[in-house]
Amino acid sequence: MLAKVTDPDVDLLPALCRGESAALRRLMDRRLSTVHRLAYRLLGDEFEAEDVAQEAFLKLWKAAPEWEEGKAKLLTWLCRVATNACYDRLRKKRPDLPGETLDPTDERPSALSVIETRQRWDALQTAMMALPDKQRTALSLCYDQALPQREAATLMEMSEKAYESLLVRARKALKETVSDHV
Length: 182
Description:
Elements: H1 13-17, H2 21-43, H3 46-63, H4 74-92, H5 111-130, H6 133-144, H7 149-155, H8 160-181
Helix pairs in contact: 2-3, 2-4, 2-6, 3-4, 5-8, 6-8, 7-8
């Protein structure tokens, strides 16, 4: 028997089930950036990530009337839907490795600092995109989403030990690849 899951977004569930768009907007205010960040990490493309995040929320909107409270957290479900959508897109066409990235957030960098930062970021993005999909997902859930191991393992439909092993392999592969490029 599965234990009931407590959901920090449970306050929005009744309104979502009734089809109230204001509840969806509030949930998107809370969780859109998390779902988008996961999709971006998996796809490496800002616009595709936006599409995937919107698809995930649209699926939740359609599934809300049949939602069974306590089975899963809304965020976990959204991340699972987004991950599956990313995998589908990756299977259809491997994206090009990222070449254009966001500017560094440091407000006073020197030109050399900007170039070095961009090179490190590009190396990291290239290394992330070269990882197998599941390793990239595990790293993103761990570092970008800061999910507990148990929740991330559940989301990836594997045991905690398998998830931990996947993280170890992903970190090792990422470290080797990045050290070769930097």
